[in-house]
């Protein structure tokens, strides 16, 4: 059994000026608490909530006696968590700032500070007493409520000043148990596609993630150049445009990752299969992004295309109870899964087995070798268990069915509209991308 948590975003109705002012005041006090706590935590290298609370609770509590006492708790949790991630970032050299910046505050609430009243309103404790706020029902919220998720006691609130609303981040939880896998779906992640082996067919789902990252990188650079020459570096309009670009990039990548993860996980669940992923190192050692010199850009591509996709698959898999295993990715595309001999690649993604002479697509090789390793083979000689699952037609390509050594390419525009692989299984043979 494992517990899965999902956050659902809900907006309140437009508040009266007076009510909204209460929350503005609350936010100001809360921000102040967190900022002071973070300062202290960073200076004393504290990342544990319990220690921060033990050392600072009394001071924090006495700062705003009119504030319900549990805000001092949640501010300690909030500060401990942001200190933790800040110190880790700094250790990895990804920030040079002395302290984390608190840009937009979200107020953390626990079970003493808020409660749901039915589905349409919530009640929040403030320094001016309890305030009831009506919320807008949305499809997302109803879906979680109807599918047996339970509302957790913690929540976060942000203020939407422009529309005088609260934005609530509600947590939903569900217990899920993993099934015993009857087989494997293997996933080989590239910069711009994910190769997935399902029922003996390798599907190449185009994601274009590195192109998205690079595209936005160049757009950002040209915006910077243009605005720098007009307004000078770091101007307000420039920052606004850059922020919008950054948000768009993030949202697009998120959508790509989650949609594809959901598709893969649902197919695995339907077959009661486990998902086998490559075990990735901490750093972008992958040879495919070596050509990118800028370390920050490499990091972003790596995160988006490899780590990000894996994380999305892991998260979705937990929700469906699909087991995920990790296998050693070394040389997965270099050795023939049938003969264990080296595959010699030309300038493209096609190679020839040095023993059998058959042609292979790199991603198909990788997917089959991941399967061999998942099944306990060493990727050298195919264990009989796997051979038995692969139809043999006696031809030069031991994988049998004509398309088995060539992946079935699926453009993003297509798979993004699917909820399952049925469309492609019915049609089969969509244009194969080399
Ligand atoms: Zn071979």
Walk me through the structure.
This protein is α+β, with helices and mostly antiparallel strands and 434 residues long. It is 43% helix and 21% strand. The protein has helices spanning 17-43, 49-63, 70-91, 139-146, 209-231, 236-270, 295-320, 362-374, 384-389, 412-415, 422-427, and strands at 2-11, 107-109, 114-117, 121-126, 129-134, 150-160, 165-176, 184-189, 193-198, 201-206, 274-278, 324-327, 343-345, 350-353, 359-361, 408-410. The chain has a 6-stranded mixed β-sheet with strand order 12-11-8-9-10-16, with helices on both faces. Mean pLDDT is 86; it is low at 377-398 and 429-434. Bound molecules: zinc ion (ZN). Zinc ion is lined by residues 336, 338-339, 341, 353, 355-356, 358.
Structure characteristics:
single chain; 434 residues; alpha+beta; 6-stranded mixed beta sheet; 16 strands; globular; disordered C terminus; binds zinc ion
Topology:
Blueprint: E1 2-11, H1 17-43, H2 49-63, H3 70-91, E2 107-109, E3 114-117, E4 121-126, E5 129-134, H4 139-146, E6 150-160, E7 165-176, E8 184-189, E9 193-198, E10 201-206, H5 209-231, H6 236-270, E11 274-278, H7 295-320, E12 324-327, E13 343-345, E14 350-353, E15 359-361, H8 362-374, H9 384-389, E16 408-410, H10 412-415, H11 422-427
Parallel strand pairs: 8-11, 10-16, 11-12
Antiparallel strand pairs: 1-7, 2-6, 3-4, 4-5, 6-7, 8-9, 9-10, 13-14, 14-15
Bound molecules: zinc ion.
């Amino acid at each position: 059994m494992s517990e899965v948590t999902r956050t659902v975003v809900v907006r309140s109705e437009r508040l009266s000026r007076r009510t909204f002012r209460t929350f503005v005041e609350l936010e100001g006090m809360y921000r102040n608490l967190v900022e002071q706590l973070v300062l202290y935590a960073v200076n004393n290298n504290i990342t544990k909530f319990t220690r921060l609370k033990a050392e600072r609770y009394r001071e924090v509590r006495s700062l705003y006696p009119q504030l319900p006492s549990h805000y001092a708790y949640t501010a300690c949790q909030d500060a401990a968590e942001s200190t933790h991630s800040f110190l880790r970032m700094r250790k990895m050299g990804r920030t040079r700032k002395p302290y984390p910046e608190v840009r937009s505050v979200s107020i953390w609430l626990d079970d003493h500070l808020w409660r749901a009243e039915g589905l349409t309103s919530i009640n929040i404790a403030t320094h001016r007493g309890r305030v009831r706020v009506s919320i807008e029902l949305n499809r997302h919220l109803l879906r979680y409520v109807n599918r047996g998720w339970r509302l957790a006691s913690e929540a976060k609130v942000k203020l939407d000043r422009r529309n005088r609303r609260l934005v609530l981040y509600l947590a939903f939880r569900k217990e899920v148990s993993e099934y015993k896998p009857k087989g494997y779906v293997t996933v080989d992640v590239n910069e711009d596609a994910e190769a997935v082996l399902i029922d003996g067919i390798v599907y190449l789902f185009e994601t274009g993630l590195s192109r998205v990252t690079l595209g936005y990188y160049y757009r950002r650079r040209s915006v910077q150049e243009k605005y720098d020459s007009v307004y000078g570096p770091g101007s307000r309009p420039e920052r606004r445009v850059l922020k919008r670009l950054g948000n768009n990039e993030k949202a697009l990548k998120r959508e790509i990752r989650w949609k594809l993860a959901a598709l893969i996980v649902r197919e695995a669940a339907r077959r009661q299969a486990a998902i086998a992923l490559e075990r990735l190192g901490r750093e972008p050692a992958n040879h495919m992004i070596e050509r990118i010199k800028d370390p920050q850009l490499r990091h972003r591509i790596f995160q988006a295309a490899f780590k990000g996709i894996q994380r999305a698959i892991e998260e979705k898999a937990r929700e469906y109870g699909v087991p995920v295993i990790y296998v050693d990715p070394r040389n997965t595309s270099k050795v023939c899964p049938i003969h264990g001999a080296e595959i010699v690649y030309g300038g493209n993604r096609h190679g020839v087995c040095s023993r059998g002479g058959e042609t292979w697509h790199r991603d198909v090789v990788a997917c089959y070798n991941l399967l061999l390793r998942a099944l306990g083979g060493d990727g050298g000689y195919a264990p009989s268990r796997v051979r038995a699952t692969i139809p043999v037609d006696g031809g030069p390509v031991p994988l049998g069915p004509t398309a088995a050594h060539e992946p079935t390419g699926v453009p993003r525009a297509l798979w993004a509209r699917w909820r399952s692989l049925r469309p492609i299984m019915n049609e089969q043979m969509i244009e194969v991308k080399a």
